[in-house]
Amino acid sequence: MDKLAIIGGRPLYGIVPISGAKNSALKLMAASLLTDEEIVLENAPRLADVDMLMRLLDQHGAQSSFDGATLRLRAKDIKSTEAPYDLVRKMRASFNVLGPLLAREGKAKVSLPGGCAIGARPVDLHLQALAAMGAKIDLDEGYVIAEAPDGLHGADISFPFVSVGATEHAMLAAARAKGETHISNAACEPEIADLAECLNAMGAKVSGAGTSAIHVVGADRLSGVTHRVLPDRIETGAYAMAVGTTGGELTLANTDVELLGAALPILEKAGLSFAATDDGVKVKKERDRCLAVDIETKPYPGIATDLQAMFMAMMTTADGVSRVKETIFENRFMHAPELSRMGAKISVDGQTATVTGVERLKGAPVMATDLRASMSLVIAALGAEGQTMVNRVYHLDRGFERLEEKLAECGALIERVSE
Ligand code: UD1
Q: How remote is the CA of residue 165 from the centroid of ligand 1, in Å?
């Protein structure tokens, strides 16, 4: 298994091209099952998660290929409506093939998902939405078996709490359902608006995306599309926090800092400055040590849970005491003991971690059990004294494109070690 060897303490200077958003690309790829025409996704990130979904879509009948950052997908005919355990268990977003298959073919059998080990993460809201649209759903031996022989129909769907995946899943299915669907308490993440834009260009009528009330008028037939994937806001935040941890100044290209939502003023308060450029943003550390700031994760536009671990890494060497509250997932502090192994002072009490900033962390062998937590260890390592070995790099390969290359080009001492 590959590891990353990082020698910390070097400020970062240079340009980092921000990739297309993984979380958006995965749902846009699932949309390819809704049409027999070609979907072209520009600015698509080449990531292990994207590869994995390409494999799943291939066995459903959607052929796909990359040319640079352009991903072409075409599901001319659906070969199989079954998504096997082996291909779904590794990545929760794979579950989003269920709705499109059901809408197009009237049936689907999809394994219950796996994904990052950050809590129970059930799919009850996804199933609730599809059932409201007329799907008959059974669970059998770890599989969801769904049928809608006469197709799906529009419905009023009111989610009891905000779920990004369930909102997207409902939109995907509603785009090819008969009639109108109203989704209330919808997620407002930028990736939802990106999906809506793509579905609209395919011929569905989606309005309200980006607000908590989404309206979808389904279409009998959807067409192909060329769509540009929006920039990855989590990657944008990650590089900003790398600067916050180790110092320097980076130009983050192909991104929009506004995508950070409420994280932006928090990062400014901690000591980073942001200046818009023609196609991105310049981020600079303005203080010797960051200031400790409290955060609480929230659905968008609140502070993204996906930035929480990296923010905690940045706070380990901040001046003062920071409280980090996680409200989206129940088990998302697994990076805390690993950061402590590097000398961080963190105590966790339920959903809140209290981080007392220390002058400097010390390199150590570390590993994390999920993607964003692994990135928090990379960020901590960039600021730490000496060498850190980050194990289980495959987590990072799932979601951060060319990570070590991008960092090395800006002066970081980082190397992939294969075993
Ligand atoms: C997506 C993102 C993930 C991010 C998360 C929250 C992708 C591929 N992943 O995940 O990176 O951390 O949004 O911003 O886009 N829940 C249920 N029942 C459901 C669905 C969700 O109880 O049917 C719970 C989850 O366990 C979690 C909360 O709702 O506690 C929010 O999850 P959700 O917004 O659905 O996250 P994902 O779409 O899985």
A: 6
